[in-house]
Model the fold of this input.
Amino acid sequence: MKKLAFFFVFICGFAISSKAQLKKPVTATIATPTVQCGMCKKKIEDYMKREEGVTKVNVNFKQKYATVTYFPDRTNLENVKTAIANVGYDADDIKANEDSYKKLPTCCKKPEDQ
Done:
């Protein structure tokens, strides 16, 4: 019986300690000055949902920023910005990937490139 009680206490302690190690999600606001329309919003949101560690994405194309919630133990802010740049849009100080930008529809490109 003592062994069973000890085992139960051990399992409970292990469960509590593993729960304490989970990090809370972080929310960041990223400037996306090249976002032009609803199609841009959809492209970024769809792509970012597949990114590891990202739990929530909301792009405001009128005010030109993206709010991204992610787990810091799975990704970091630089990876999130790079992922947005890989879709073809500027993200804070990271410029858009040129090849991805060229593949964007005309309405999603900068006004000077249309």
